[in-house]
Design the sequence.
């Protein structure tokens, strides 16, 4: 769309941030006292707390508690202008971004578009699998699981029944492990009373991991414990296997094995979500922008990238930093500081990643944590790790109200073993129609 | 679909209930110790607490707090079978209902399908207006309002801008009055900080009522107070006017006046949602089944109707009972009792409506209530009525958790003047595309 988008001009240097994930939002907030105009553009009107999406997908939390509307978070910030729009292209010559609401002029541009699900070019997989990157994905998975069980009640055929009850999760990183664990809890505590007529011994949860360990990147203790916990919970973990194809019904592995499921959850990879318009040589593999130690995109003095979309290569991180919340938050904070220094013509400060470690929860009382604090690493698995995971996620949520409601939900679920958000509202994924095989003809 | 749906046969008389609203759910629960098999069929997997839908639509409550999954409510009830299905037709000769999952045999059938929005045959209105009968409607209204404001930021043209900021609500019953009041609160406390760039003095809220009073059916004091409160809140109430047509942009009234809006909320009428298959003579005007004082549909000894879909005509109620929660709940409870008596070959007890009065809330600290207790009527308007309204709606919600979260939301909103659920997730209604008129061409 040509023509300028209508945004008041404050007569101050304008910082345009594309994307309000962890990095973009942190940057926007940190610029609240800076002598700049901040324009935050996102295609949603809310920030998503991605680490808890899997709990929305598994009926543990309402979608509302993991999202926060930008205008609500930022409505006190006088130098901030939010725009709901999709960005189509960067025009670095004219210093504008082309968006669905018109051109947006910038003095400094920050790309914080995050990552998107990477199907590695497999269009059939993209069509049939369910991803876990957005609230809409999570709601769709919840709706699909519940709809499938309702349909399963009508089926007589054994294989058809299994296709509805069984789950295949691809990817043994935190998302895959956490979903597998949460599904195994539902299978144990919730589904059997909800669906008395179904036999949940028939419900199989398969977790497929291409490498030989789960939670790659964490400590060996964490990997081993997560494997043990999942197996104790009855999850069938397939190490060193890959999915070759999935047609919405049959999953074929590279070993020749086949599994049957209507619900394949793809948690096997993410890639950067770059914009068009910049020189191709500033994009590295995985769709991330090559940035210097100030998060400046190679060759563009006033364009920056932070978070998942940025690959800041160093000896310690030859592939760039891990695609997690912490690097994004820290880069957002530093960039706010550096933009202020840039305007004051002071030298910039280089980014140094403060790695706080990593954690993943497998289920009730079971998590693994590698915590880095004061230059030391603590590794713990089990109940203590689970308490830490719970506490850290709770305080990281945005807004008192969300924290309170999540705490309430968790406390409730902990003591009742219940997960209450079991409604079907919104989209359902149904790649292959289910044929109901009715019991018998009417007399 | 031919062939029997797969539902275990308990060898007990089977009561099939179509619809899990107030009446159907109450009946199902009240039959928990009866020597029958209960089959509850609904096209959603959750019960909706309709009286609070308007708060979902106006960002005061998350959708999740006003719905409760049937399986969660009923999972302890051993004689109950829930089925997610659409009922297409009653076949009274074969004693089956035809559904999307196959035929369901019944010994006793209870139609509790409730009411649906009545557009009085105006197909254009149905296409362009937003209704307020389901959670999906409420979410759609919320999303549409928020999307319109985001779009309004880009508009220069005065009339186009007004079409996005202005609201027309048709119908001066409780729903219309409550939405008008809630929107006026958002206009005063929430929208101006969210959208600093818009001038909310331009946002008009029109309430159109065909009769000469609001809240027809309540006391004169209630009608007058609700009118006064709405006018104090800056709502433009049009009495004795009707909407002739709405094309998605221009509203034409019977007086010749026109209003411009992209958001017309239709709260002007409901009608019964009858099933096909029964003799046409048992349907009364308004799509309600004529039932005797035991809720039995005329001419069908083992088919009953309860709640909004039933018209039980008497001297006191020549049009049947009001289409509210109370008659439905009371009829559901009595029918459970009567079905047990029927099986024990005891005489049935006639229905007597215990009218507890009516109430409506207009906004913060302002409600009207006509309460009937111990044969006396108390009429109160203002703060006390508002407290009563708040308390009664809170305790009527299903489940401790929903009550708690709603209480938390209300307390929070009361002290902060905030309504926090301002995200756009799901459907948006956009009957006529908005042309963005951009500010100026780029230099």
Sequence:
């Amino acid at each position: 769309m040509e023509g300028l988008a209508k945004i008041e001009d404050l007569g101050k240097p304008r910082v345009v941030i594309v994307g309000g994930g962890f990095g973009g939002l942190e940057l926007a907030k940190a610029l609240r006292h800076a002598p700049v105009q901040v324009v935050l553009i996102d295609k949603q009107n809310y920030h998503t707390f991605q680490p808890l999406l899997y709990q929305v997908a598994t009926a543990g939390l309402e979608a509302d508690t993991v999202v926060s509307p930008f205008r609500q978070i930022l409505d006190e910030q006088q130098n901030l202008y939010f725009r709901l729009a999709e960005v189509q292209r960067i025009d670095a010559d004219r210093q504008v971004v082309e968006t669905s609401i018109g051109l947006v002029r910038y003095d400094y541009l920050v790309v914080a578009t995050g990552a998107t699900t990477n199907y590695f070019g497999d269009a059939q997989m993209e069509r049939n699998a369910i991803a876990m990157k957005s609230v809409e994905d999570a709601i769709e998975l919840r709706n699909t699981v519940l709809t499938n069980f309702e349909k399963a009640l009508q089926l007589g055929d054994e294989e058809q029944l299994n296709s509805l009850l069984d789950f295949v999760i691809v990817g043994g990183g935190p998302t895959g492990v956490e979903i597998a664990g949460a599904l195994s809890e539902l299978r144990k505590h919730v589904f059997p009373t909800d669906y008395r007529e179904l036999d949940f011994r028939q419900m199989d949860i398969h977790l497929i991991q291409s490498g030989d360990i789960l939670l790659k990147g964490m400590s060996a203790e964490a990997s081993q414990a997560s494997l043990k916990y999942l197996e104790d919970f009855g999850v069938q973990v397939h190490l060193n296997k890959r999915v070759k194809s999935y047609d919405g019904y049959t999953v074929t592995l590279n070993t020749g094995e086949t599994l049957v499921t209507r619900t394949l959850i793809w948690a096997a990879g993410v890639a950067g979500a770059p914009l068009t318009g910049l020189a191709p040589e500033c994009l590295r593999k995985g769709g991330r922008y090559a940035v210097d130690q100030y998060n400046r995109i190679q060759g563009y003095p006033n364009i920056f990238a932070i978070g998942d979309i940025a690959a800041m290569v160093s000896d310690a991180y030859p592939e760039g930093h891990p695609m997690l919340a912490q690097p994004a938050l820290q880069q957002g904070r530093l960039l706010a500081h550096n933009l202020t220094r840039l305007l004051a013509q002071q030298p910039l400060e280089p980014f140094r990643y403060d790695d706080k470690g990593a954690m993943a929860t497998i289920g009730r009382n079971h998590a693994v944590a590698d915590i880095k604090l004061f230059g030391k690493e603590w590794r713990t698995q089990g109940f203590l790790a689970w308490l830490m995971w719970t506490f850290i996620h709770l305080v990281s949520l945005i807004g008192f109200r969300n924290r309170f409601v999540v705490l309430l939900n968790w406390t409730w679920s902990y003591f009742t073993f219940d997960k209450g958000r079991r409604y079907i509202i919104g989209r359902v994924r149904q790649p292959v129609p289910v044929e109901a095989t009715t019991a018998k003809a009417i007399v």
Remarks:
- The longest strand of chain B covers residues 366-373.
- Confidence is low (pLDDT under 50) at residues 436-443 of chain B.
- Residues 3 and 102 of chain B are 6 Å apart (CA to CA).
- Chain B touches chain A through 66 residues (CB under 8 Å).
